[in-house]
Structure prediction request, 652 residues.
Amino acid sequence: MIPELGHFALILALAVALVQGTLPLIGASRNDDRLMALGRTAALTQAFLVILAFGALTQAYVTSDFSVANVVANSHSAKPLLYKISGVWGNHEGSMLLWALILALFGAAVAVFGAGLPDTLRSRVLAIQALIGVGFLAFLLFTSNPFERVFPAPADGNGLNPLLQDPGLAFHPPLLYLGYVGFSVTYAFAVAALLEGRVDAAWARWVRPWTLAAWCFLTLGIALGSWWAYYILGWGGFWFWDPVENASLMPWLAGTALLHSAIVVEKRDALKSWTVLLAILAFSLSLLGTFLVRSGVLTSVHAFAQDPARGLYILGFLLTVTGGGLALYAWRAPQLQGGGLFQPVSREGGLILNNLLLCTLTVTVLLGTLYPLFLDLLTGDKVSVGPPFFNATFVPLCAPLFAALCVGPFLGWKRAELWPALMRLRVAFIVAVAAALVAMTTIDSRSTLAALAFGFGVWLIVGSLWALADRLKQGTLRTTPRATLGMVIAHASLGIVVLGSVATSAWHTEVMQTMKPGDRISFAGYAVQLDKIEQVQGPNYVAERATLNVTVGGKPYTVLQPERRLFTVQRRQVAETAIQTNFLRDFYATLGEGDPSQGWVIRLYLNPLAPWIWLGAAFMAFGGFVSLSDRRLRIGAPRSSKTRRPTPQPAE
Prediction:
């Protein structure tokens, strides 16, 4: 009965979304208060109904209701409770329901926190958000019903993909979707502004918090996914330029550009058309990622569906959303005239350079991701575009971005001089050069590029902190705006990520050795002995567990216990790495195949500064949340009067 309740709630949610997506638009065009007021009520109602549907599916998973086909395909009674819950979104249908849930929640948030918006703008934003919801709810009901029954109900289910039975993957999708779907709000604001023919500083002030929230969640989602790939897949790396990894990176890059571009609109009334375009593209790239993992064009652990019909629906929806937004932009954007004039060397000029580089990086990733797919479609040829391409194109483009990142805060608005700004950063430059020289001479004299990149990481940290110190000369930490503090934290944290990425990629040490119990090897100054291989029983798996005794100078240092797990339902093996960290490096061990007669394959890695990658990403998101707490963003623009509601304008 509960699954039917959830299914019925989805049907009602679709009906409410249709009302929300039409009547408030009509009301905004006619200045009809009654029709516009429906938008807020409908948004809250739709959110309640989708919450009800999601709760019904969750209940089916938690209670192992194997009369529901989705539960049969993705759960098992022996699974731990955490993975029963995460199994709700660990599949195609459930993940799309999670997407619809987050979309409805964002719509409700706009309804609740958008009281200061002009009535017409809020109505249009809620209507556009609802029309996006119509697309996803219809997709769920007509192609991907998560409540479909199976009869007779089997005694047990097929279980969840073993690679997804991990705490990192339990929380990775919700965070990632909060980022993806968060950009739907910026898209809705952009389309609503184009319909009204009005983009101004107040509009930018309203858009920035939603952009910032989406960016923070997407940062955490990408970082958590990278951490999972690092310690579960057992290959010792953290980023492989997999197409699905790239699919999450592209909206992050576009969202970062949008975040900085909106500042120029708010502060200087410039870059209006560019900011609106970025808002459209950021969400379009989020939808592109959805298409890639659900169309069958990719084979990946992230790929949920291989049904071409579903892929065609999502492709059509992607083209409708993106094409509709771009068509409206082409029609209305010429009317959005910017009012702020500035010189190339200025804070505005620095932010434009930032945007150009970020967008170039986005296009580079887009081409590297889609080229093999288009080539396969047109010619049938199979090619692989992987790390060599991206390391040769993406990484060099980061250098000018990092070089300019610390200079921008020292430039004045409208007009500035470059040399005085560079002189104020001379200490940061000296420290960065010294760090690069030390890295080159003491770590590896052949890794000149790695040492240079390491210097850029130090430059970002010291330069960002130097900007804060310069600001504190004019006041105290208490009087410094939180948006400024958040910027400093985020920029410095990016430097921490760069240091961790460079050190782990360029200066790691690894060895692969076949060992039997009692064998000992020397590795990077450590002595590693395989003490034993034992069989262990998990809740829904059996495993071989190695015990590796690590000593330094004959003194005990640590014990590592990597495993090779066999999940009994799926008959699939998964490596479980063992990592000992001191936050300056990771000692990383994996257990491969073997037997008592031949021995077992042991892989050991020493990854310097590896933890800094994820600590830096976490601090980046923290910096974003600090900025989000800035009172100026929370209160937004002044509340508009009922008697002076702005009317649609054809031009600025």
About this structure: The radius of gyration is 26 Å. The chain has a mean pLDDT of 90. DSSP finds 19 helices and ten strands in the chain. Strands lie at 509-515, 520-523, 526-537, 541-552, 555-560, 563-567, 572-576, 578-581, 585-595, 599-608.
